[in-house]
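Inverse folding, one chain.
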């Protein structure tokens, strides 16, 4: 009788074990198997069309940054770990296409963050979708960072942030460098793509140049679609300038071709590029013979003055795309991802409101690490919100085909 009871008890314990183990041990192993969560981030930029090279280079920069962060275990968000996954969509440089792409990212892919675009009309189209959905919009670029009469950063546009400094913040440093290095330069002329789009930036550049002691004797415009830059060069040179500055000249290679046309028409004075031309592209396209006294605001990862992170980005590209030439545009894309990642980790949340609040609080110099050196968020007095990343930018000089970042400058935006 006792043996029978013992046998029944053992059977009961075994049955209990079969019931309890899936509930306890099974859930434990399920958690282990699940691993890190996935954080999906959408991007909207021109992947096709005349500006497609920008979308391609930036997209690769985003992906390389994600791979780097993921290899370190991903983002630590409170008690969770997140692996970053990018979903890239083509804006086709069209507000309509940008709207459709953003709707897909927000409502189909369920992203919490959207990065884009390189054109203001497309960025505004993106924000028209992200704002009501409560999704953070990280500007890829903006033509005018100030509020006044244009859409952009401000307290009335929540969940909108720019994780890179704008080119207008570099005007003062560049014109002072030009004035000091080339004391015989007096008269300047500017070139700009589709001037109406850049009205305020043109005015600010002209005002800054003249406040530095120069006389701006004229300006000429070109169209995004142009492929023959000789008429543009001719129109610039008719003003008989001592130096030329290009505020925005189109895609990464367009400015280089514009400089090539200017040099081939005999202009020997300094040329400043405030556009998106990689300093590596300029001597490649212009030729070493004509690559002299060219000053640009883009970084070069191959220069002796490059930061360790810049070198890392370049090395990552060369390992991942060994058959393709390095161009420095991915440095900026990598930087935006890194800054956003720091905001997410500081917030201990992937919720857009919490991440925005964390980023806005990172306003002390050095509170953010960037690819180019210590950074911070700024703009509270000027824009009404601390939502523009401020980090060092180089004054890059090309002489005889040699590229040197002769000076690092950290802009301020109170």
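Residues assigned per position:
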């Amino acid at each position: 009788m006792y043996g029978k009871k013992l046998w029944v008890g053992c059977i009961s314990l075994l049955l209990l074990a079969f019931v309890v183990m899936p509930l306890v041990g099974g859930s434990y192993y399920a958690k282990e198997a699940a691993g890190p969560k996935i954080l999906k981030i959408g991007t909207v930029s021109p992947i096709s069309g005349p500006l497609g090279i920008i979308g391609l280079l930036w997209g690769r920069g985003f992906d390389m940054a994600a791979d780097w962060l993921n290899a370190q275990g991903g983002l630590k968000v409170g008690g969770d770990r997140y692996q970053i996954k990018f979903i890239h969509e083509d804006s086709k440089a069209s507000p309509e296409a940008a709207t459709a792409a953003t709707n897909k990212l927000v409502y189909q892919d369920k992203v919490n963050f959207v990065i884009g675009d390189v054109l203001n009309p497309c960025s505004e189209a993106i924000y028209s979708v992200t704002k009501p959905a409560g999704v953070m919009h990280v500007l890829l670029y903006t033509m005018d960072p100030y509020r006044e009469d244009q859409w952009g950063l401000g307290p009335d546009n929540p969940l909108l942030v720019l994780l890179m400094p704008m080119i207008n913040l570099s005007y003062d440093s560049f014109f002072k460098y030009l004035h000091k290095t080339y004391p015989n330069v007096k008269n300047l002329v500017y070139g700009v793509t589709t001037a109406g789009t850049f009205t305020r930036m043109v005015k600010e550049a002209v005002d800054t140049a003249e406040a530095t002691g120069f006389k701006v004797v004229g300006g000429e415009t070109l169209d995004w679609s142009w492929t023959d830059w000789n008429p543009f060069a001719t129109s610039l040179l008719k003003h008989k300038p001592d130096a030329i500055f290009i505020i925005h000249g189109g895609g990464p290679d367009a400015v280089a071709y514009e400089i090539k046309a200017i040099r081939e028409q005999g202009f020997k004075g300094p040329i400043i590029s405030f556009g998106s031309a990689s300093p590596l592209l300029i001597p490649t396209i212009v030729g070493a013979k004509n690559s002299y006294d060219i000053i640009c605001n883009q970084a070069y990862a191959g220069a002796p003055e490059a930061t360790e992170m810049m070198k890392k980005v370049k090395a990552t590209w060369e390992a991942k795309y060994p058959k393709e030439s390095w161009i420095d545009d991915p440095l900026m894309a990598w930087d935006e991802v890194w800054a956003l990642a720091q905001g997410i980790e500081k917030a201990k949340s992937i919720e857009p409101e919490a991440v925005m609040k964390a980023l806005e609080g990172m306003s002390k110099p050095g509170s953010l690490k960037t690819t180019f050196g210590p950074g911070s968020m700024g703009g509270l007095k000027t824009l009404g919100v601390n939502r523009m990343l401020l980090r060092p930018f180089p004054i890059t000089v090309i002489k005889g085909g040699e590229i040197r970042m002769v000076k690092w400058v950290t802009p301020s935006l109170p």
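Residues 2-34 form the longest helix (33 residues). The mean pLDDT is 88.
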